[in-house]
Design brief:
Layout lengths: L2 E6 L4 H11 L5 E7 L19 H7 L12 E7 L7 H5 L3 E6 L7 H9 L3 H6 L1 E6 L5 H7 L5 E5 L16 H12 L4 E5 L7 H7 L3 E4 L1 H4 L4 H9 L3
Parallel strand pairs: 1-2, 1-8, 2-3, 3-4, 4-5, 5-6, 6-7, 7-8
Length: about 230
């Protein structure tokens, strides 16, 4: 069965808490975007407020506090940052259920592959690892690394790290989903960016297993109704 995953892209930790408060009881999974302002131009929490020195971030990684409502959510972290593997242990302290890497943000693809192959069994047993790619990226690279991850994360646009205005769904994503489903047996595919009620069914029909929905929920005049409409599709 397919899954709807609400996506949160915010600079301010209080806004993250507000959106998680809204999602309580409405979604078990919450997708958080981490943008460092280098791999992508945009910055989100904690990078918009001091990076790893952000007060709220520091309290969590120092185990003084947990992520908001951590007992109620399975957190999915999309690491749109440079050299994410160097700080993997830090992100793990936030308690993710899923972590998404962008290979383009890593210094060396072979080193990245070795990192994936060498992940601790505890991590493998408790955290799903995803691999993100854009519509224009080389699918041969994606296919080569697919055996080392739990799912593939198809970005619906080359413009990553943003929600809402100016970001539209790239139709090449549909072809990419179909190609990967056909050529990689059993692969789980999530799709993120540009999804709305006009194209969601087509994306699901192409083979998507998860839809990450951001602005189509948060910018709706009726966020509750919008979320329910998406959830009714799966």
């Amino acid at each position: 069965m397919a899954e709807i995953v609400p996506a949160i892209l915010e600079k301010n930790f209080n806004e993250i808490k507000n959106k998680l408060t809204f999602l309580r009881g409405r979604s078990r999974v919450a997708h958080l975007d981490f943008c460092d302002g280098r791999f992508v131009p945009n910055q989100t929490w904690p990078f918009a407020f001091g990076g790893f020195n952000d007060l709220d971030f520091a309290k969590i990684i120092n185990e003084e506090e947990g992520m908001p409502f951590w007992e109620e959510f399975d957190f999915e972290f999309d690491l749109m940052v440079e050299n994410a593997i160097e700080n993997f242990d830090i992100y793990m302290k936030l308690g993710p259920k899923r972590i998404i890497f962008h290979p383009r943000g890593e210094k060396d693809l072979k080193e990245f592959q070795h990192f994936l192959e060498g992940l601790d069994m505890y991590v493998r047993d408790n955290v799903e690892i995803g691999l993100a790619f854009r519509p224009s990226d080389d699918l041969s690279v994606v296919s080569h690394l697919a055996n080392n991850v739990d799912f593939l994360h198809c970005m619906g646009s080359d413009k990553v790290g943003f929600q809402g205005a100016g970001v539209t769904f790239d139709e090449r994503t549909i072809d990419n989903i179909k190609f990967l489903k056909k050529n990689i047996e059993g692969i789980v595919i999530s799709v993120d960016i540009g999804i709305n009620l006009n194209n969601a069914e087509e994306i699901l029909k192409a083979g998507a297993d998860r839809l990450c929905i951001g602005s189509s929920i948060w910018k709706s005049p009726d966020p509750v109704g919008a979320l329910q409409n998406f959830q009714s599709l799966v």
